[in-house]
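COMPLEX REQUEST
Ligand: calcium ion
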Amino acid sequence: MRQTMIPYLGAAAITIFLVSFFIAPPARGELIDDFNDGNDDGWTRLDLLDLTGVGSANFDASSTQYVISSDGELPVLPEACNGAGAFWTPSLTDPQFANGTVRAKVSFDTDISNAFVALRLDAAGNGYDFAANNAVDRIFVDRLAGFVGLPGGLSSIPFTLETGEEYIIEGSAIGSQLAMKIWKVGDAEPATPQLMATDDTHDSGALWVAAYYCANPPVGGQLSARFDDVTFTVPEPSSALIAMVGCVCVSWMRCRSSSSRRRT
Ligand SMILES: [Ca+2]
Ligand SMILES: [Ca+2]
Ligand SMILES: [Ca+2]
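STATUS: Structure written out below.
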């Protein structure tokens, strides 16, 4: 009796291990920061405006929103985009952030100001961003290299964004699948992502929020975008995966059961 129980106990242990590994992830929709304490402790700032000699940035959470803005007016850019951002410091090395969904409330204080959230983006600007370009009314899923995006992004569509309005922006990187949703606060959340893309260049890196402006359209001025209620969600457990784990365990138990019967 004891001998025949051992395979079942072993199977149960393996089942518990697999279930806990695949299906019982860390807390879902975990709050990263609501800035309600008025500071940005835990974030690592990066002022690309300063590093490239274009200007300098302010990072200010005293309003209980995280405002990333330029210190004064910025010049028209000759090309590409520039800005400032911050990454959630633990996310740079914590593998929990390699797969999942970042969500943040975003708004723009001026017409030149755009914003992105990013996943798997390292401190040198290599990774994925999910961008809301207020200046040209377009949203992008993009792969950045040294903070420079691909022409046209991995995927993009027109989307009307209004200065002063609040939006929820959501970026997702699960395996090689990238997806983005955006909607105005108060509107219904879209049932499916507006943008999807497949890319396997980057499999880990940090969670970011950033404000930026671009050479298109060729305008300078004050850069200012604000962020709030940043959350990160690990992937939903896949019912297919649950089924697969179940089948593997049942097969393994049957196999062990028949081999133990042969031994007795
Ligand atoms: Ca807040
Ligand atoms: Ca804080
Ligand atoms: Ca706009």
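REMARKS: The pocket of calcium ion (ligand 2) is lined by residues 33, 35, 37, 39, 41 (CB under 6 Å). The chain has two domains: 1-25+238-264, 27-236.
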